[in-house]
Amino acid sequence: MFVRSLGSGRPLVALHGFGVDHRIMLPLEQAVRDAPWRRVYLDLPWAEGATVSTAASARDVAKEVLADIREHLGAEPFAIVGQSFGGMIARYIAHELRSQVLGVATLAGVVEAKHDARKVPDRSVLVVDQSVLDEAGDSRDEFTADHVVQTADTFAAFTEYVLPGSRGSNQAVMDRIAAEYALPVEPEVQHPQPFMAPSLHVFGRQDAVVGYEDGWALRDHYPRGTFAVLDTAGHSVHLERPDLTAALFRDWLDRMDATGR
After folding, report:
1. C-alpha to C-alpha distance for 110 and 51, rounded to whole angstroms
2. 254 within a domain of the structure (yes/no)
3. CATH no. for residue 45?
4. Other C-beta atoms lying within 10 Å of the C-beta of residue 62
5. Partners of residue 128 on adjacent β-strands
6. Which of 56, 126, 130, 162 is least enclosed by beta carbons within 10 angstroms?
7. 99-128: pLDDT as tens digits
8. What is the Cα–Cα distance from 171 to 168, expressed in whole angstroms?
9. How far apart are CA 43 and CA 65, in angstroms?
10. Is residue 138 part of a domain?
């Protein structure tokens, strides 16, 4: 997998969602840039910059990520954050390497992998700037598909951080993995002991893709978890509510710093 590393300090591994690349995670830099963390951004197998992969399931992706982390970090303690599909993989890694993981965070993370089994709200749009949509051109449909907040700021973030990865994705690889999108066993079932390191789980109240109720149901497994459901946010919660997401993310970093590991 392609790896992009920024900063210095303890490693913070970042995993993006399905059909995009590591750039969707870069807005988190506003929360991490001045903190003592080395950000390690991975590109998953369908991303344009990723190395050739034979992955044909979510489990294959998880095992490739696990191998990459072991190759690049060895036994070094690290934290991990994942967005959407990457959130599911981050939970897998956090449990498989529990003794090495300082904490885990998810942003609009996939919990229920089967789309028709997810508890999601009805699709809604809360804020619209029609002038932005009028000038969005051929990216309009992609932008409006998941965004609850359709403004100049969210469109700029979408154009910079989402669109390039979306358009550069390898559809054949995605189709292969989508056929077995779920992990064989949920991480919390495979490892039923509560996850005691600091965690953060951010959801959009209006997220019609993965929702928030399936993720909220995991709260007892994470005794040191902050679970936040943000209003006026959909599946692009960290792009639609960047300041609040950054504040929650910084708090998560502070909580890991306080553990002294």
Report:
1. 24
2. yes
3. 3.40.50.1820
4. 22
5. 150
6. 130
7. 999 999 999 999 999 999 999 999 999 999
8. 9
9. 10
10. no
pLDDT-derived band at 71, boundaries 50, 70, 90: very high
Q: Which domain holds residue 247?
A: 3-120+168-259
Domain count, the chain: 1
- Asked if residue 141 is part of any domain, the answer here is no
Q: Is the per-residue pLDDT at 261 higher than 60? A: no
Q: How far is the C-alpha of 76 from the C-alpha of 181, rounded, in Å?
A: 29
In degrees and rounded to multiples of 5, residue 244 shows phi and psi of: -70, -40
Instruction: Please compute, for residue 92, the number of CA atoms within 13 A of its CA located in the half-sphere on the CB side.
Output: 25
* CA angle (70 as vertex; 68, 74 as ends), nearest 5: 140
| Rounded-to-integer distance, Cα 55 and Cα 253, Å | 32
User: Percentage of residues in the chain with pLDDT exceeding 90?
Assistant: 91
Q: Looking at the domain assignment, is residue 140 inside a domain?
A: no
pTM (predicted TM-score): 0.96
Question: Angle 85-96/58-73 helices, nearest 10 degrees?
Answer: 60
* Secondary structure of residue 179 in the 3-state scheme: coil
Match 């992969």 to its residue by tokens. 53
User: Buried b vs exposed e over 40-50: b needs ≥16 C-beta within 10 Å?
Assistant: bbbbbbbbeeb
Cα separation of 236 and 147, whole Å?
A: 6
Q: Which residues of 12-33 are buried (b: 16+ CB within 10 A; e: fewer)?
A: bbbbbbbbbbbbbbbbbeebbe
